[in-house]
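Usage

Read records sequentially. Each one opens with the input sequence:
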Amino acid sequence: MDQDRITEFIDKSEITSVVNSYFRALDEKNFDAEHFASIFTPQANVTRPNGLSLIGPAEISASHENSFARFEGSQHVLAGHDISLDGGTANVRANLIAMHMWQGSKSDANKPENFFVAGGVVRAVLMQTDGQWRISRINTAVLWRAGGFRDMMQTGALTREAQSANGSQ
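and closes with the structure output:
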């Protein structure tokens, strides 16, 4: 194996790890701004599934901390990381399935009103700076949802488009 292929393999492994660490932070409710600064570039842009854009690690972590307070727990599972490299820039596409348990559900997934699950596609751009890969831009396109998302509609977390796609108004 030549050195270029080894470097590419290492870069793709590190990129996958950075993307996974973002979703792990959400699941573990690790919203420390310094931790997010190790994952994101200073001017990183996160576009949430509802269309809200957040800029910079501090704003991203604070918004997620506020949003995830309504969940007892969550689990984000990413697979199929497709990574293309162009120098110090990486473009990533990955499949995502995420489950969110509403506060008070006691993690009881036997009742649909206690959770919602969604599937979608994550797209990210990462930049390599000082030998470290960090997320510069990331968004999730939700393709489907199931379970109880009545609470989300009451708090305005679902956009009108998402409500229409789910058959509710």
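Summary fields computed downstream for this record:
- Residues 153-169 have pLDDT under 50 and may be disordered.
- The domain at 3-158 is CATH 3.10.450.50 (Nuclear Transport Factor 2; Chain: A,).
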